[in-house]
Design a protein that fits this description.
Strand order of the largest sheet of chain B: 3-5-1-11-8-9-10
Number of domains of chain A: 2
Radius of gyration of chain B: 27 Å
CATH architecture of the domain at 362-451 and 597-750 in chain B: 2-Layer Sandwich
Distance between the termini of chain A: 45 Å
CATH architecture of the largest domain in chain A: Roll
CATH superfamily of the largest domain in chain A: Beta-grasp domain
CATH class of the domain at 362-451 and 597-750 in chain B: Alpha Beta
Strand content of chain A: 5-15%
Order of helices and strands of chain A: EEHEEEHHHHH
Largest interface: A-B, 68 and 67 residues
Oligomer: heterodimer
CATH class of the largest domain in chain A: Alpha Beta
Shape of chain A: elongated
Strand content of chain B: 15-25%
CATH superfamily of the domain at 362-451 and 597-750 in chain B: Aldehyde oxidase/xanthine dehydrogenase, molybdopterin binding domain
Number of helices of chain B: 20
Radius of gyration of chain A: 17 Å
Largest sheet of chain A: 5 strands, mixed
Helix content of chain B: 25-40%
Helix content of chain A: 25-40%
Number of strands of chain B: 32
């Protein structure tokens, strides 16, 4: 699916190694290529979206070594050796991540364009363990804009998954 | 387990249903216009002009061409030949005028106008080179300030198709207003807003070896875009397919073809390669916008608030090359009973791009003014704002002297007020507090037109018993896929998992652009018709099968359920639908159907959706911060096909209204003639932390006249009136009447 093969890259391209959705990839990247453009154009992983290219909308959110980040603000070369998880790696139809399931159940999206970023952000938020109330969820999810206005449903979905994970934690204790 | 399976298989219109496109959207599998690839794909980057009006004197592309990977730089000097006549550039929803033609000549009509397209082997090379294209200009004096030209306003000489001009005056509004004991006369404004869907505008043109084009375009109408491309480039319809299977939001900005479509097709044709052009977020602010509109509202009433005079006048900005029009003032003659009404709508030309439809175009502006003025009248007359609406309730449309197909607005008022707790409101402004914050409760009415548009659909059943329903309509996040699948499932009594909905492809049965809240009602009605015809064809075929149990019954004597056709009187006598298809020696049987407005009904009736919105705000007066803590939006919209997605549509409208009321404002620098805050850091839209509790109520509203399926449409009603309800709540909290949106901190503190 890659649109840009190695021949079209300039001599400035440098080799890096990334683990993308569990698969190790050895890649040639030009130093000015953002992680987002690398994922979308070279790797064909168009699930990560470009909404503003300025780190203002959150549509490009991916997990870098388990932490959420705006991939449009990250140059790919500086993440040599990192582990990247995109929406495609979280789960696929038939084997969806609980957060993906919750987004469907609570109708937490409409057009779907901000959704991969919202879900990556939400998965990281749960892992961060910082959000316990709806108010906290709203605050920590405010880096991801949804122009369709699905916010209350997004909070419902995250609250649902938080509830599941705290039930699981209690069960384990 | 068997019970669960039967339950899942129940026909399901009216049941809350998960989106059928959900799994693709949550897993990154849904592809949008800029996400298609081709082996030889080139990347185009648009160069935007930097003056508002004048001519390009020179344009130097040599530095750009020298960047490795750059293939071509297109400007007005080397643009390939395109159509000459305006009509070729006029799309289905174009207003009267001469549509903008990208790279057509050296003239500059608005700031940010595309002046070149750089095409390169990589996105980064194209972007880099675009910065090196140097233009010199002969600027001319421009005016982008509506206030500077509002004195030269005019009644548009040519009406825009589908937009009703203001009705003739009734009674004598001026005389009635002059002698009215209670009066309100004020001016209202709403700032310029940009649609800002999350997906930037993008077009990927994939050109096959034979020169046929598959165009993945961000559009609300694949066939509208197809007709534009074939007209402008002189191509055959059979050589151009436009696909918009997924659209990352639009809100009206995708109704008309945008310049990236033209540029991508132009480059693909000239270079005989596949080309993708994606706009940047700041270039999205060089597209269209909700027009700045100055409105004057005069209300005169008897002491108890009974309206005796309404005058509503609006002046809206438009471009120098097109007369964009929307329905701003007519609502004031429709929503309340009043015998003396005068409505007028005029345009004034400024040096910007042509404004466009943005969610509930016209109504978002006009009903804000009307419902703010009604709140002012309630205070002037000393009556409760809700009581004022009931006192002036309209049972028929005085604008057109017609009946409503249905109007359950009273239920909206009653159920909304009950859920909100409106009866506990103390009328006096500044009389309610929560700690250090002022609390305000406001309400307003919403209204939007309900109509269907001529739409065709196809139903197709395979030999395995799988149903496919299809139409060239769009799903811009509205839930069209799901409503179509639901309708097909309902018609055949199939589980929704056995139904596939296809849309967003110009080669499918004819459908209009998705807009005006008509898609769900029109498309599902067409799907019902197609399914009916297919069922009849299947019945005919089944009768001819050997040992057919249907030999002695007519069509009314059979039922369809769980993938079988059966005798209604004896469900044990049944045949699998797939077997019927196979008996015809076919892999599939299909039928086309359609839906269209009924002209006999239209002669007698009008159809609208209505809503009652109740809002609580909390205002920190020291900081000037307004928080919307609670909204109840009670909606009457006929039959609700999928309450889950319909609720989301209302939520989305409400959130956009919160933006319009409190945040959204595109600032122009009139010296430069340019919009300045062209990014999400400076153009504020609501974020998660801004949105707290939104309660949506759908009231019962049987309607057998608006559409065959009984639905009215819910894409726009959520935004209408909600801005006024918020502004009215701010007044109740603070005693400050703010008539120009958005209500930002500076206005609260002033």
């Amino acid at each position: 699916m890659s649109s840009q093969d190695a021949q079209s890259l300039s001599p400035a391209a440098v080799p890096i190694r990334l683990t993308i959705n569990g698969t190790e990839r050895r890649l040639q990247v030009e130093p000015w290529t953002t992680l987002l453009d690398l994922l979308r154009e070279q790797e064909g992983l168009t699930g990560s979206k470009k909404g503003c290219d300025h780190g203002q909308c959150g549509a490009c959110t991916v997990l870098i070594d388990g932490k959420r980040a705006n991939s449009c603000l990250v140059l790919a070369v500086v993440k040599d050796g990192a582990e990247i998880t995109t929406i495609e790696g979280l789960g696929q139809p038939g084997n969806l991540h609980p957060m993906q399931e919750a987004f469907i159940e609570h109708d937490a999206f409409q057009c779907g364009y901000c959704t991969p970023g919202q879900i990556c952000s939400a998965v990281a938020l749960v892992q961060e363990g910082r959000a316990h109330t709806r108010e906290e969820i709203r605050e920590y999810m405010s880096g991801n804009i949804c122009r369709c206005g699905a916010y209350t449903n997004i909070v419902d979905a995250i609250e649902d998954v938080l509830g599941q994970s705290s039930t699981l934690r209690e069960a384990a204790e | 387990m068997a019970d669960t399976a039967t339950l899942i298989g129940r026909p399901s219109i009216g049941q809350p249903t998960r989106r059928v496109d959900g799994p693709l959207k949550v897993s990154g599998g849904a592809r949008y216009a800029g996400e298609y690839f081709a082996d030889d794909l080139l990347h185009g980057y648009v160069v935007s002009g930097s003056i508002a009006k004048g001519r390009i004197l020179s344009i130097d592309t040599s530095a750009a061409m020298a960047i490795p990977g750059v293939v071509e730089v297109f400007t007005h000097e080397n643009r390939p030949r395109t159509a000459w006549f305006d009509s070729k550039y006029q799309d289905q929803v174009a207003p009267p005028g001469s549509p903008f033609r990208p790279l057509y000549g050296d003239g500059i009509l608005y700031s940010g106008q595309p002046i070149a397209l750089v095409v390169a082997e990589s996105f980064e090379a194209a972007r880099d080179a675009a910065a090196l294209v140097k233009a010199t200009y002969a600027p001319e004096e421009h005016i982008t300030d509506l206030d500077a030209v509002k004195g030269q306003s005019y009644v548009p000489p040519k009406k825009r198709s589908g937009i009703a001009p203001p009705p003739e005056p009734r009674g004598d509004a001026e005389a009635a207003f002059a002698k009215a004991p209670v009066k309100v006369h004020e001016t209202y404004r709403v700032a310029v807003e940009h649609h800002n869907p999350m997906e930037p505008f993008a077009t990927t043109v994939v050109r096959d070896a034979g020169g046929k084009l598959t165009i993945y375009d961000k559009t609300q109408g694949s066939q509208n875009a197809q007709a534009y491309v074939t007209g402008v480039f002189g191509l055959n319809q059979s050589d151009v397919t436009v696909v918009n299977a997924f659209v990352g939001g639009a809100f009206g900005i995708g109704l008309r073809p945008q310049h990236q479509l033209f540029l991508a097709v132009m480059a693909a044709q000239a270079l005989e390669r596949s080309v993708r052009v994606v706009l940047t977020r700041d270039q999205m602010f060089t597209l269209s916008y909700r027009p700045e509109t100055i409105q004057t509202l005069s209300l005169g009433s008897a002491p108890g608030g009974k309206l005796d005079a309404i005058m509503h006048h609006a002046v809206a900005g438009t471009s120098h090359f097109e007369d964009y029009q929307e329905v701003v003032v007519n609502w004031a003659g429709l929503l309340y009973g009043c015998d003396n009404v005068k409505l007028s709508y005029e345009l004034a030309k400024i040096d910007t791009y042509t404004p466009s439809d943005m969610r509930a175009p016209g109504a978002t502006l006009g009903v804000f003014a009307l419902e703010s003025a009604m709140d002012e009248l309630a205070y002037a007359a000393g009556v409760d704002p809700l009581q004022l609406r009931l006192t002036n309730y309209a049972d028929f449309d005085q604008n057109e002297d017609k009946k409503f197909t249905s109007k359950a607005l009273i239920s909206c008022y009653e159920q909304g007020a009950e859920r909100f707790g409106w009866s506990k409101r103390s009328a006096e402004p500044r009389s309610m507090r929560d700690g250090h914050e002022l609390v305000g409760w406001g309400m307003a009415t919403g209204v939007w037109e309900a109509k269907i548009n001529k739409t065709a659909a196809r139903a197709s059943l395979t030999e395995t018993g799988h149903l496919e329903v299809s139409s060239a309509t769009s799903d811009i996040g509205t839930g069209t896929y799901t409503v179509m699948a639901l309708t097909g499932a309902d018609a055949f009594g199939l589980p929704i998992e056995h139904v596939t909905a296809r849309l967003g492809d110009s080669s499918l049965p004819t459908a209009p652009v998705e807009g005006g809240s008509w898609a769900a009602a029109s498309t599902s009605s067409a799907v019902v018709d197609a399914c009916d015809k297919l069922k009849q064809a299947l019945f005919k075929q089944a009768q001819s099968m050997p040992d057919s149990p249907f030999g002695n019954v007519d069509f009314d004597g059979v039922a369809f359920r769980d993938g079988r056709m059966m005798l209604a009187a004896d469900e044990g006598s049944s045949v699998k639908l797939g077997e019927i298809v196979r008996s015809a020696r076919q892999h599939r049987m299909e039928a086309e159907g359609s839906a269209a407005p009924d002209s006999a009904t239209q002669k007698e009736y009008v159809s609208y959706t209505h809503s009652a919105i109740f809002v609580e705000v909390k205002v920190d007066e020291e900081l000037g911060v307004v928080r919307v803590t609670r909204i109840v939006n009670a909606v009457a919209a006929g039959k609700i096909l999928n309450p889950k997605a319909a609720r989301s549509q209302i939520l989305g409208g409400v959130v956009m209204a919160m933006g319009a009321a409190l945040e959204e404002e595109t600032f122009a620098d009139h010296n430069l003639g340019r919009f300045m805050n062209h990014n999400f850091a400076e153009y504020h839209v609501p974020v998660n932390a801004d949105v707290q509790d939104i309660d949506v109520i759908f009231v019962e509203e049987p309607d057998d006249k608006t559409s065959p399926i009984g639905a009215k449409g819910i894409g726009e009603i959520g935004i209408v009136g909600t801005t006024a309800a918020i502004a009215n709540a701010v007044y109740h909290a603070t005693g400050k009447r703010i008539r120009d949106l958005p209500i930002t901190i500076d206005k609260i503190l002033a």
